[in-house]
Amino acid sequence: MTSGPASPPADTRPAEPAALKPAALTEPAAPAPAEPARQGDLSDHERHIAPHVMVYLFAFVPFVALIAAVPLAWGWGLTWLDVGLTAGFYVLTMLGVTVGFHRYFTHGAFRAARGLRIALGVAGSMAVQGPIRHWVADHRRHHAFADKEGDPHSPWAFGTSPAALVRGFWHAHMGWIFDRSLTNQKRFTPDLIEDPDMRAVHRWFTPLTVISLGAPPLIGGLVTWSWWGALTAFFWASLVRVGLSHHVAWSTNSICHLVGERPWGSRDRSTNVWLLAIPSMGESWHNLHHADPTSARHGVGRGQIDISARTIWLFEKLGWATNVKWPTARRLDRLAARAAA
Ligand SMILES: [Zn+2]
Ligand SMILES: [Zn+2]
């Protein structure tokens, strides 16, 4: 967000939803200036104990499954059906986060028809990365304070010594999610609070998590007509899939602010990491994203694969997405010049 939601006080901000704001590609897109985190950036209540226990559960159980997956893959139930279900649910929920939660809901990179808007909210929720308002509020706060005090997940939070960076990597990758303080949703997501559809999607986070974890074993069990088929589908397409997608998504916060190339002018330490381009659906072209947050395409260079941008392009062709903020050559030249300066 250029004039990040954190900049003006909540009561003076326009009531217009972020996603409906006019194209910002013509405006300067410098990140919000560094300012100290203010009290109002955080909610005045902490996460309750039951959801906090669930955070630990959902962070570690799929993680353990992911580690167990490699030895188990040899000689233990992994069928083509499991592979298909895992890939299908991975792509669906990952795009829900990258196209939906991130490029659309957080940054307003395009306008979506109501059906697409709801579908993106539902698919993003099924990635089990938290309810929509928590995700969007945390991410808008990340852009408002990127790599400065107030950023919920900067790997540079503890200093630049090797020991501080090890600690910072852990914090940015997954440590930050165990912090019980919550981002102030009234300040950062007034547009989602006002929208009845998104209030429902937010409320439905728990049932959507159950569906996300329950659908693969249901399909696996019915197709193979066996409990074993249900169990292997649950292991691969529910647990391993969620674990893998969590770590790929979290890598954008940790690796893509730590190592990699910085060809674009952004005032933080965001980087481009080509190795993660395909699993992250284009999100690892993260330096361009911080330089130009509302752009619908993050991988703008030759050969920079960006599956999320291609998906938005498809939605545009189908008429479901309009006002897509595609990068222009003039604008990219300006960003490159800023990086060289
Ligand atoms: Zn972003
Ligand atoms: Zn970032």
Automatic annotation (TrEMBL):
Keywords: Fatty acid metabolism, Iron, Lipid metabolism, Membrane, Oxidoreductase, Transmembrane, Transmembrane helix. Its main location: membrane. CDD domains: Delta9-FADS-like. Residues 80-294 form the Fatty acid desaturase domain. Residues 1-42 are annotated as: Disordered. It is found in: Membrane. The chain crosses the membrane at residues 53-75, 87-106, 200-219. InterPro entries: Acyl-CoA_DS (IPR015876), FA_desaturase_dom (IPR005804). It comes from the Bacteria. PANTHER family: ACYL-COA DESATURASE, BLL4393 PROTEIN. This is Acyl-CoA desaturase. It comes from Actinomycetospora lemnae. The lineage of its organism: Bacteria, Bacillati, Actinomycetota, Actinomycetes, Pseudonocardiales.
